[in-house]
C-alpha cells in the first residue's frame, strides 16, 4: 500500500484536488494515451459524471479538463496563459495538442455534464474521447478522480500495485502493524516512513522535495494573509484572512489578548490557504485541496507560537502526517465524494495531529492516539459545499480542523499512548459511515448547507 509523502502532499491548483486537479491530470494522461496510438485523431470530447457533473461548475472542472486537453498540468500551471488559451479554444473550437496537431473541440458541445449516468467505479468519473473527421468516437478512456489529485483508469482501479510491499523496509498497512514495527525497530513513525521513501529516491531528493512542499504551503499562507477582495463563483464571499491577520498583528504586545486568541491565529493560517484555494491559486493537497489548510496551519502554529520549534524538523512532521494519511486512504478514503468531509478535513486533522505530536516528542503510541482523537471527532461530517464551491463551509472548516488537530495532539501527549479506541477501528468507522451516508452529503451540493442558503 506504499503511498509516498509526495502522493499525500502534491503541489497543485485550487479549488479542488478531486474536481480540478484530478480531471486536469486525467486529460493530460489522455493526451499521452493518444500519442501512443498508431492512428491519428481529429477531435476531442469529454463527459463528466456523478459528483463531477453535479459540482463541476463550482469546482471549475470544465476549465480543468479543457486546459488539461490543451497540455496544462497542475504542477506548472500558469494562470495568465490559461486565460488566453481558454479564450482561444472557445473562439476557435479547436485545441492545439502537442504531438497530436490541431483537434476540434467546442467547449459548449464537446464537454457534457452528464447528470444521469453515474460511472460504476467511483463517484468522480469522466469519459474522455477522441473522434475521427466524421465525429465518430475512435478512442476513449474512463478516468476516476479518487481524491487528493489521484487519478486512475478503469483498469487501474482493480489492478494490483506495481511495486510490492516487500520492496519497502516497513510495509505497514494498518496502524497496529505500524506500532508493532515501531516497537520492534525502536524507530519513530517518521523514521520508518523515511526508510520507506528512500527505497525509491535519494535522501537529497527526499529532503529537497519536502522543503519545496513546505515552501509552497508557507508561501500560500503568506499570500492568503495579504490578499483581499471577493472570491470567484458568485457567492460574494469576501476574503477575511488579511483583515483578521492585520487585527491580530495590531494586538500583538498590547497585553489585552484573551488566551483563546491563539485559535484566531490558527484559523487565519488555515483560512488564508483555503481562500487562496478557492481563488484557484497554488496550494499543496494535504491530503486534498478542500482540506489543504489544516496541515500548513498546524505547522505554522508550531513554528510561530511554540517555543523550541525548528523549521529543520518540518520534514519529520510531513513524514508522520503522510504515514497517517496513507493509512486512511488505504483503509477508507480521503475523498469527500466518497465518504463526506470526515474523509477530507477529518483525515487532514488526523494527519496534522500526528505530525504535531511527533515533533513535540510524542512516542509512536501517542502519535497514533493523537491521530485517532482528531479523526474520531470528525466522524459523520458531511460534504455539502454551497453552490459546489469550495468556500462555505470549507474555508472556516479548515481553521476548526486545525484547532481540533492541535487539541488532539495536546491531549494525546498528556497520556501515555494507551487509549480505548484504536486508530484502525476509527478509520473503519469512518469508512462504514461514509458508505452509509446519503449521496446528498457527498460533494453533490444536493443537501445540507448547500440547500439551506438564505435568500438575500
Ligand atoms: S465540505 Fe469538506 S469535503 Fe466538501 S468540498 Fe468542503 S472541505 Fe471538501
Assign the CATH class of the largest domain: Mainly Alpha
Question: What shape does the CA trace take?
Answer: globular
Ligand identities: iron/sulfur cluster
| Largest sheet, spatial ordering of strands | 5-2-6-7-8
How many strand elements? 9
Average pLDDT figure: 95
Order of helices and strands: HEHEHHHEEHEEEEHHHHHHEHHHHHHH
Any idea what the radius of gyration is? 22 Å
The fraction of residues assigned to DSSP E strands is 5-15%
Q: Characteristics of this structure?
A:
single chain; 456 residues; alpha+beta; 60s Ribosomal Protein L30, Chain: A; 2-methylcitrate dehydratase PrpD; 2 domains; five-stranded mixed beta sheet; two-stranded antiparallel ribbon; 50% helix; globular; binds iron/sulfur cluster; Fe-S_L-Ser_mono; gluconeogenesis; iron-sulfur; EC 4.3.1.17
Structure description:
- By secondary structure, this protein is of the alpha+beta class.
- The protein folds into 2 domains: 17-158, D-3-phosphoglycerate dehydrogenase, domain 3 (60s Ribosomal Protein L30, Chain: A, 2-Layer Sandwich); 175-441, Orthogonal Bundle (2-methylcitrate dehydratase PrpD), CATH 1.10.4100.
- Helix content is 50%, strand content 11%.
- It has helices spanning 5-8, 17-35, 51-54, 61-69, 79-92, 107-110, 154-158, 175-185, 189-197, 203-224, 241-251, 261-278, 294-305, 314-331, 336-339, 345-359, 364-376, 394-413, 423-436, and strands spanning 10-13, 43-50, 94-97, 101-104, 111-114, 124-131, 137-147, 150-153, 282-285.
- The strands form 3 sheets. A 5-stranded mixed beta sheet has the order 5-2-6-7-8.
- α2 runs parallel beside α4 and α17 (364-376) runs parallel beside α19 (423-436).
- It starts with a helix and ends in a 20-residue tail after the last helix.
- Bound molecules: iron/sulfur cluster (SF4).
- The site of iron/sulfur cluster has 13 residues, from α18.
